[in-house]
Write a structure and sequence with these properties.
It is built from 12 helices and 9 strands. The protein is of the alpha/beta class. Helix 2 crosses helix 3 and helix 4 packs parallel to helix 6. It binds ligand C2E and calcium ion (3 copies).
Length: 276
Protein backbone atom coordinates (compact mmCIF):
# COMPACT_ATOMS: atom_id res chain seq x y z
CA UNK A 1 0.00 0.00 0.00
CA UNK A 2 1.27 3.40 -0.89
CA UNK A 3 1.16 5.76 2.05
CA UNK A 4 -0.18 9.20 1.20
CA UNK A 5 1.02 12.25 3.05
CA UNK A 6 -1.25 15.13 3.96
CA UNK A 7 -4.18 13.33 5.58
CA UNK A 8 -7.61 13.31 4.00
CA UNK A 9 -6.89 14.87 0.65
CA UNK A 10 -5.48 11.76 -0.97
CA UNK A 11 -8.59 11.17 -3.04
CA UNK A 12 -8.64 14.66 -4.48
CA UNK A 13 -4.93 14.59 -5.05
CA UNK A 14 -5.24 11.28 -6.88
CA UNK A 15 -8.00 12.67 -9.10
CA UNK A 16 -6.04 15.83 -9.71
CA UNK A 17 -2.85 13.95 -10.45
CA UNK A 18 -4.53 12.09 -13.27
CA UNK A 19 -4.69 15.37 -15.18
CA UNK A 20 -1.90 15.80 -17.67
CA UNK A 21 0.01 19.09 -17.54
CA UNK A 22 -1.88 20.05 -20.69
CA UNK A 23 -5.26 19.43 -19.03
CA UNK A 24 -4.23 21.44 -15.99
CA UNK A 25 -3.32 24.30 -18.29
CA UNK A 26 -6.61 24.06 -20.20
CA UNK A 27 -8.52 24.08 -16.92
CA UNK A 28 -6.75 27.22 -15.67
CA UNK A 29 -7.38 28.96 -18.99
CA UNK A 30 -11.01 27.82 -18.98
CA UNK A 31 -11.62 29.44 -15.58
CA UNK A 32 -10.41 32.67 -17.08
CA UNK A 33 -12.47 32.08 -20.25
CA UNK A 34 -15.69 31.97 -18.24
CA UNK A 35 -14.89 35.26 -16.53
CA UNK A 36 -13.65 37.00 -19.64
CA UNK A 37 -16.48 35.83 -21.89
CA UNK A 38 -14.33 33.92 -24.33
CA UNK A 39 -17.02 31.24 -24.74
CA UNK A 40 -19.63 31.54 -27.46
CA UNK A 41 -22.30 29.46 -29.10
CA UNK A 42 -22.80 28.35 -32.66
CA UNK A 43 -26.14 27.05 -33.84
CA UNK A 44 -26.77 24.15 -36.22
CA UNK A 45 -30.13 23.66 -37.95
CA UNK A 46 -32.37 20.64 -37.40
CA UNK A 47 -34.75 20.05 -40.31
CA UNK A 48 -38.01 18.19 -40.70
CA UNK A 49 -37.29 15.29 -43.03
CA UNK A 50 -40.57 15.54 -44.96
CA UNK A 51 -39.85 19.00 -46.44
CA UNK A 52 -36.40 19.95 -45.04
CA UNK A 53 -37.82 23.01 -43.27
CA UNK A 54 -35.65 24.17 -40.36
CA UNK A 55 -37.62 23.63 -37.16
CA UNK A 56 -34.95 24.15 -34.50
CA UNK A 57 -31.26 24.71 -33.87
CA UNK A 58 -28.79 22.94 -31.60
CA UNK A 59 -26.50 25.21 -29.59
CA UNK A 60 -22.86 24.10 -29.73
CA UNK A 61 -20.19 25.55 -27.48
CA UNK A 62 -16.99 27.16 -28.78
CA UNK A 63 -14.05 28.85 -27.11
CA UNK A 64 -12.00 31.69 -28.55
CA UNK A 65 -8.34 31.02 -27.92
CA UNK A 66 -5.27 32.98 -28.96
CA UNK A 67 -4.52 30.41 -31.66
CA UNK A 68 -8.06 29.96 -32.98
CA UNK A 69 -11.41 28.53 -31.94
CA UNK A 70 -11.33 25.49 -29.64
CA UNK A 71 -13.93 22.77 -30.16
CA UNK A 72 -15.77 21.02 -27.29
CA UNK A 73 -13.68 17.85 -27.52
CA UNK A 74 -10.65 19.93 -26.46
CA UNK A 75 -12.18 21.31 -23.27
CA UNK A 76 -15.55 19.73 -22.32
CA UNK A 77 -13.92 16.62 -20.77
CA UNK A 78 -11.79 18.68 -18.38
CA UNK A 79 -14.74 21.01 -17.69
CA UNK A 80 -16.75 17.92 -16.76
CA UNK A 81 -14.14 16.26 -14.57
CA UNK A 82 -13.47 19.53 -12.72
CA UNK A 83 -17.13 20.45 -12.28
CA UNK A 84 -16.60 23.71 -14.19
CA UNK A 85 -19.18 22.42 -16.66
CA UNK A 86 -21.91 23.38 -14.16
CA UNK A 87 -21.41 27.17 -14.34
CA UNK A 88 -20.57 26.87 -18.05
CA UNK A 89 -23.79 24.94 -18.65
CA UNK A 90 -25.76 27.62 -16.83
CA UNK A 91 -24.26 30.24 -19.08
CA UNK A 92 -25.04 28.15 -22.19
CA UNK A 93 -28.68 27.74 -21.16
CA UNK A 94 -29.11 31.43 -20.44
CA UNK A 95 -27.43 32.48 -23.68
CA UNK A 96 -29.36 30.04 -25.87
CA UNK A 97 -32.76 30.75 -24.34
CA UNK A 98 -32.17 34.50 -24.66
CA UNK A 99 -31.46 34.07 -28.36
CA UNK A 100 -34.90 32.48 -28.75
CA UNK A 101 -36.61 35.04 -26.56
CA UNK A 102 -35.04 37.81 -28.65
CA UNK A 103 -36.58 36.27 -31.77
CA UNK A 104 -33.24 35.22 -33.26
CA UNK A 105 -34.24 31.54 -33.27
CA UNK A 106 -37.59 29.74 -33.31
CA UNK A 107 -36.54 26.93 -30.99
CA UNK A 108 -33.29 25.75 -29.48
CA UNK A 109 -31.77 22.50 -28.27
CA UNK A 110 -29.14 22.69 -25.52
CA UNK A 111 -26.70 19.95 -24.55
CA UNK A 112 -26.59 18.88 -20.93
CA UNK A 113 -23.60 16.99 -19.53
CA UNK A 114 -23.94 14.12 -17.06
CA UNK A 115 -22.46 16.31 -14.32
CA UNK A 116 -25.05 19.01 -14.85
CA UNK A 117 -27.88 16.51 -15.08
CA UNK A 118 -26.83 14.93 -11.78
CA UNK A 119 -26.43 18.28 -10.01
CA UNK A 120 -29.01 18.69 -7.22
CA UNK A 121 -30.08 22.16 -8.34
CA UNK A 122 -30.22 21.44 -12.08
CA UNK A 123 -34.01 21.34 -12.38
CA UNK A 124 -34.42 24.45 -10.27
CA UNK A 125 -31.83 26.30 -12.32
CA UNK A 126 -33.60 25.40 -15.57
CA UNK A 127 -36.90 26.56 -14.13
CA UNK A 128 -35.40 29.83 -12.86
CA UNK A 129 -33.64 30.51 -16.15
CA UNK A 130 -36.83 30.01 -18.14
CA UNK A 131 -38.67 32.36 -15.78
CA UNK A 132 -35.92 35.00 -15.78
CA UNK A 133 -35.58 34.95 -19.56
CA UNK A 134 -39.36 34.78 -19.96
CA UNK A 135 -39.21 31.95 -22.48
CA UNK A 136 -42.06 29.62 -23.39
CA UNK A 137 -40.59 26.28 -22.19
CA UNK A 138 -42.02 24.52 -25.26
CA UNK A 139 -39.34 26.28 -27.32
CA UNK A 140 -36.50 24.58 -25.43
CA UNK A 141 -35.23 21.04 -25.84
CA UNK A 142 -32.63 19.65 -23.47
CA UNK A 143 -30.36 17.01 -25.03
CA UNK A 144 -29.28 14.47 -22.47
CA UNK A 145 -26.77 11.80 -23.32
CA UNK A 146 -27.74 8.21 -22.99
CA UNK A 147 -24.77 7.67 -20.64
CA UNK A 148 -25.97 10.33 -18.15
CA UNK A 149 -29.11 8.33 -17.47
CA UNK A 150 -27.42 5.08 -16.64
CA UNK A 151 -25.22 6.69 -14.02
CA UNK A 152 -28.09 8.18 -12.07
CA UNK A 153 -30.72 6.23 -10.14
CA UNK A 154 -33.04 9.21 -10.00
CA UNK A 155 -32.77 9.87 -13.75
CA UNK A 156 -36.45 9.05 -14.46
CA UNK A 157 -37.47 11.39 -11.64
CA UNK A 158 -35.26 14.25 -12.92
CA UNK A 159 -36.55 13.75 -16.47
CA UNK A 160 -40.12 13.81 -15.17
CA UNK A 161 -39.49 17.04 -13.25
CA UNK A 162 -37.92 18.69 -16.31
CA UNK A 163 -40.73 17.58 -18.56
CA UNK A 164 -43.35 18.92 -16.18
CA UNK A 165 -41.75 22.34 -16.69
CA UNK A 166 -43.12 22.05 -20.23
CA UNK A 167 -39.88 21.67 -22.13
CA UNK A 168 -38.88 18.91 -24.53
CA UNK A 169 -36.39 16.16 -23.77
CA UNK A 170 -34.09 14.49 -26.25
CA UNK A 171 -32.02 11.39 -25.64
CA UNK A 172 -28.68 12.30 -27.24
CA UNK A 173 -26.17 9.92 -28.80
CA UNK A 174 -28.61 7.04 -28.85
CA UNK A 175 -26.90 3.90 -30.08
CA UNK A 176 -23.61 4.63 -28.36
CA UNK A 177 -24.46 3.13 -25.00
CA UNK A 178 -26.39 0.19 -23.77
CA UNK A 179 -29.77 1.67 -22.97
CA UNK A 180 -32.11 -1.26 -23.25
CA UNK A 181 -35.30 -0.80 -25.17
CA UNK A 182 -37.19 -1.48 -21.95
CA UNK A 183 -35.45 1.44 -20.27
CA UNK A 184 -36.12 3.61 -23.30
CA UNK A 185 -39.83 2.81 -23.21
CA UNK A 186 -40.08 3.80 -19.55
CA UNK A 187 -38.46 7.23 -19.91
CA UNK A 188 -40.45 10.43 -20.37
CA UNK A 189 -38.82 11.59 -23.63
CA UNK A 190 -39.89 13.48 -26.74
CA UNK A 191 -36.98 12.90 -29.08
CA UNK A 192 -34.36 10.22 -29.70
CA UNK A 193 -31.21 11.39 -31.50
CA UNK A 194 -29.41 8.67 -33.41
CA UNK A 195 -25.67 9.06 -33.00
CA UNK A 196 -23.56 10.14 -35.93
CA UNK A 197 -21.42 7.01 -35.68
CA UNK A 198 -24.59 5.10 -36.55
CA UNK A 199 -25.44 7.32 -39.49
CA UNK A 200 -21.94 7.54 -40.94
CA UNK A 201 -22.20 4.16 -42.69
CA UNK A 202 -25.67 4.75 -44.09
CA UNK A 203 -25.60 5.00 -47.85
CA UNK A 204 -21.94 4.08 -48.28
CA UNK A 205 -22.87 1.09 -50.40
CA UNK A 206 -21.19 -1.41 -48.07
CA UNK A 207 -22.73 -4.38 -46.36
CA UNK A 208 -22.27 -2.54 -43.03
CA UNK A 209 -24.16 0.38 -44.55
CA UNK A 210 -27.04 -1.91 -45.41
CA UNK A 211 -27.11 -3.23 -41.87
CA UNK A 212 -26.91 0.32 -40.49
CA UNK A 213 -30.01 1.47 -42.35
CA UNK A 214 -31.95 -1.63 -41.28
CA UNK A 215 -30.93 -0.96 -37.69
CA UNK A 216 -32.01 2.67 -38.02
CA UNK A 217 -35.35 1.56 -39.44
CA UNK A 218 -36.10 -0.69 -36.48
CA UNK A 219 -35.00 1.86 -33.88
CA UNK A 220 -37.06 4.55 -35.60
CA UNK A 221 -40.11 2.30 -35.73
CA UNK A 222 -39.78 1.47 -32.06
CA UNK A 223 -39.22 5.11 -31.10
CA UNK A 224 -42.22 6.09 -33.20
CA UNK A 225 -44.42 3.50 -31.55
CA UNK A 226 -43.43 4.99 -28.19
CA UNK A 227 -44.42 8.43 -29.49
CA UNK A 228 -40.87 9.79 -29.84
CA UNK A 229 -39.60 11.86 -32.72
CA UNK A 230 -36.24 10.82 -34.16
CA UNK A 231 -33.35 13.00 -35.26
CA UNK A 232 -30.55 11.51 -37.34
CA UNK A 233 -27.27 13.33 -36.60
CA UNK A 234 -24.38 13.84 -38.97
CA UNK A 235 -26.28 13.69 -42.26
CA UNK A 236 -23.76 14.69 -44.90
CA UNK A 237 -25.12 13.43 -48.23
CA UNK A 238 -28.38 13.64 -50.14
CA UNK A 239 -28.46 9.87 -50.36
CA UNK A 240 -28.26 9.57 -46.57
CA UNK A 241 -31.06 12.12 -46.19
CA UNK A 242 -33.25 10.14 -48.60
CA UNK A 243 -32.53 6.77 -46.97
CA UNK A 244 -33.10 8.16 -43.47
CA UNK A 245 -36.35 9.80 -44.50
CA UNK A 246 -37.48 6.52 -46.06
CA UNK A 247 -36.51 4.74 -42.84
CA UNK A 248 -38.96 6.99 -41.01
CA UNK A 249 -36.61 9.46 -39.27
CA UNK A 250 -38.76 12.49 -38.58
CA UNK A 251 -35.87 14.97 -38.39
CA UNK A 252 -32.38 15.32 -39.83
CA UNK A 253 -29.29 17.28 -38.81
CA UNK A 254 -25.88 17.52 -40.41
CA UNK A 255 -23.53 19.41 -42.68
CA UNK A 256 -25.86 18.75 -45.64
CA UNK A 257 -28.36 21.19 -44.12
CA UNK A 258 -25.93 23.53 -42.42
CA UNK A 259 -22.82 23.64 -40.35
CA UNK A 260 -22.89 25.18 -36.89
CA UNK A 261 -22.77 28.95 -37.37
CA UNK A 262 -23.23 32.37 -35.82
CA UNK A 263 -26.72 33.67 -35.12
CA UNK A 264 -26.66 36.07 -38.05
CA UNK A 265 -26.32 33.11 -40.38
CA UNK A 266 -29.22 31.11 -38.99
CA UNK A 267 -32.15 33.51 -38.99
CA UNK A 268 -35.51 31.73 -38.64
CA UNK A 269 -37.07 30.49 -41.83
CA UNK A 270 -33.79 30.44 -43.64
CA UNK A 271 -33.06 27.01 -45.05
CA UNK A 272 -30.06 26.76 -47.26
CA UNK A 273 -28.01 23.85 -48.39
CA UNK A 274 -24.37 24.36 -47.62
CA UNK A 275 -22.00 22.44 -49.81
CA UNK A 276 -19.27 20.72 -47.84
P1 LIG B 1 -23.24 16.23 -30.01
O1 LIG B 1 -24.23 16.74 -29.03
O2 LIG B 1 -23.41 14.84 -30.50
O3 LIG B 1 -23.24 17.30 -31.19
C1 LIG B 1 -23.07 16.95 -32.55
C2 LIG B 1 -21.64 17.15 -33.00
O4 LIG B 1 -21.53 16.69 -34.35
C3 LIG B 1 -21.19 18.61 -33.03
O5 LIG B 1 -19.80 18.61 -32.78
C4 LIG B 1 -21.46 19.01 -34.46
O6 LIG B 1 -20.70 20.11 -34.89
C5 LIG B 1 -21.06 17.74 -35.18
N1 LIG B 1 -21.73 17.59 -36.46
C6 LIG B 1 -22.97 18.01 -36.82
N2 LIG B 1 -23.27 17.65 -38.08
C7 LIG B 1 -22.19 16.96 -38.55
C8 LIG B 1 -21.89 16.33 -39.81
O7 LIG B 1 -22.69 16.30 -40.75
N3 LIG B 1 -20.68 15.72 -39.90
C9 LIG B 1 -19.78 15.71 -38.89
N4 LIG B 1 -18.59 15.12 -39.09
N5 LIG B 1 -20.02 16.31 -37.69
C10 LIG B 1 -21.22 16.91 -37.53
P2 LIG B 1 -19.12 19.66 -31.79
O8 LIG B 1 -19.75 21.02 -31.99
O9 LIG B 1 -17.65 19.52 -31.93
O10 LIG B 1 -19.56 19.14 -30.38
C11 LIG B 1 -19.10 17.91 -29.90
C12 LIG B 1 -19.81 17.50 -28.64
O11 LIG B 1 -19.54 18.41 -27.58
C13 LIG B 1 -21.34 17.51 -28.76
O12 LIG B 1 -21.74 16.33 -29.41
C14 LIG B 1 -21.74 17.59 -27.31
O13 LIG B 1 -21.66 16.33 -26.71
C15 LIG B 1 -20.63 18.45 -26.72
N6 LIG B 1 -21.13 19.83 -26.55
C16 LIG B 1 -21.19 20.83 -27.46
N7 LIG B 1 -21.71 21.95 -26.92
C17 LIG B 1 -21.99 21.65 -25.63
C18 LIG B 1 -22.56 22.39 -24.53
O14 LIG B 1 -22.95 23.56 -24.63
N8 LIG B 1 -22.66 21.72 -23.33
C19 LIG B 1 -22.27 20.42 -23.18
N9 LIG B 1 -22.42 19.84 -21.99
N10 LIG B 1 -21.76 19.71 -24.19
C20 LIG B 1 -21.62 20.31 -25.41
CA1 LIG C 1 -26.37 17.03 -28.88
CA1 LIG D 1 -23.96 12.71 -31.08
CA1 LIG E 1 -21.46 13.13 -29.56
Amino acid sequence: RVKKSGGGYGFFRAVHDRRTPEETEVLAALHKAVEEKELFLQYQPIVRSSDQVVVSHEALLRWTRPDGVAMPAAFIPVAESSGLIVPIGRWVLEEATRAVQLGLLDKVAVNVSAKEFAHPSFVRNVEETLARVGLDPARLTLEIKEGSLLDLVRAPEVLGALRSLGLQLALDDFGMGLTSLTVLSALPLDVVKLDRSFIARVGDGSEAGGRAIRLVRSVVQLAGSLGFRTVAEGVETRLQAQLLKNAGCTHLQGYLFGRPGALGDVLPGESKLVSA
